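Q: Convert this sequence to C-alpha cells.
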Amino acid sequence: MTEPLLIYIIAGEPSGDLLGGRLMAALRQRSGGQVRFAGIGGESMRDEGLDSLFPMTELSVMGLVEVVPRIPAILRRVKQTLCDIETKCPAAVITIDSWGFTGRIHGGLKKAGSNIPRIHYVAPMVWAWKSGRTKTLARVLDLLLTLLPNEPAWFEKEGLRALHVGHPVIEGGAGNGDGAAFRRRHGIAADTKVLCVLPGSRHSETAKLLGPFAKTLGLLAARVAGLTVVVPTVETVAEEVTRAAATWPVPSLVIRGAAEKYDAFAACDVALAASGTVALELAMAGLPAVITYKVSRLSAFVATRFLGLSLKFVTLVNILVDRAVMPELLQDDCRPNKLAEAVEHLLNDPVACDAQVAGARHALEKLGLGGESPSGRAADAVLAFIKERRP
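A:
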C-alpha cells in the first residue's frame, strides 16, 4: 500500500486557518484519503486533524509597531518550525498568507538548499504595496496560489509559477445561515433590531477596536429601541471579547463556531466589523455592514510613508468594484460618533442596504461565485505539483 503523502501546512492567523481547514479537507477528498498533515494552525485545521506544532495565536499579530516586541519570539518559532520540517521531510510545504512569518520559512528552506516543494496560498497585495515584493516571492517559492484573477500576472513576469484558484469564502457557507432558527434558539423576537459586532480576530485588532465599539453601542442604545448585539468570535480573542461584551450597554450575545456565526449573520440586520476576510463573509450572507480598522499612528505613518501602501480602499469588496460599496471608517474616522451614525443609517435605510448587497454580489462574482470550488482547485494544483516534482 502506498504511504500517504505528508503535507506540512502553516497558517498564522484565523483567516488563514479557515483557508487551511478547507484546503486540508479538499486534499483528503481529492487524494482518496492518502494524505496526512503536520504544521501550524488553529481551530479549523485542528478539526481536520492537525496537531499544531505550537499555538497559532503566537503568530496572530498585526501592525508594524505591534509586531516589534514579538520579533525575538517569532524568530525562535521560525527556527523551531524549520527544524520540524527538516525532521519530518514532507512531500511539500504549504504556507497560507502571513508572509511576515511564512516568508521566513520559505527563505530558510531555500537557504538550507531544501528540495521540498515550497507553495504559498494567498498572494501578498503587491498591487497595493511596492511591486518589488514580487521578486522576493519569486526567489523563494516554487508555486503561488492566488485568490484574485489579476494576481498571477504580477508574479509570472518574475518567473514564478502562479495560479488563480478563486476565493474560498464563496464555498464557506456564509450565505446559508438560518436566521429564524438562531433567533428562536436565543430568544430574540422577530421584530428586534440585531447588530452583528465583529471586533477582529487578533489581539492587536481587538485592543484597538473594543473601546470604540463599546462607546458606539452606548450611542446606539439611546437611538435604537431594544437593540440587541451578537458577537461572533474566535479562539484567539474569545476570552478578551467575552469580558468586554459583558460590560456593554446593550444585551450582547457572544458566540463561537462557523455554523453559529452564519446563522447569526442571517439573523442580524446590520454588521459593524473590523476589516478583513469577514467582510467577504458578510457580503456572501447579504448582511449590510460598516467596515472599520485602526492601527497605531506610527504603524499607519510607516505603512504610507515608507512602505508605499497606496490604496483607495482596504475592503476587498470595494477594491474589486472600485467604489465604496461597504462604508469604510478607518484610523481617525474610527470614532464612536461616526460609527454609530453609519450603523444607524443602514438600520433605517433599506434602499442603502439593498444597494450594498447588490454591489457586494458583483464583487463576489469576480472571486469565482458560481464556479468550481476554490479549495478543490487549490488541492488539485497542490497534488499535481507534488506529482510533477517527485523523482
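The radius of gyration is 21 Å.
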